[in-house]
Design brief:
two-stranded antiparallel ribbon; alpha+beta; 9% strand
Length: 66
């Protein structure tokens, strides 16, 4: 646990307490302005348990999703 805390202390994105037991996002670093709707694709008409991710990706052509 101490090694993980040591590594995280070098990050600008998070803050680690002095004891190395608590972590939080650095409030001085702004949260990226991303919207999950711009990164989400909804596909329907495929069997939930028998369809593989590779099969789904094969149906999507690069640049076809705005």
């Amino acid at each position: 646990m101490a090694k993980i805390a040591e590594i995280l202390k070098a990050s600008e994105l998070v803050e680690v307490d002095e004891g190395g037991t608590k972590i939080r996002r650095n409030p001085n670093v702004p949260i990226p302005d991303t919207n999950t709707e711009t990164r989400t694709v909804y596909l329907k008409g495929f069997h939930r348990t028998e369809t593989l991710l590779d099969q789904l990706l094969g149906k999507i052509k690069p640049g076809s999703i705005p």
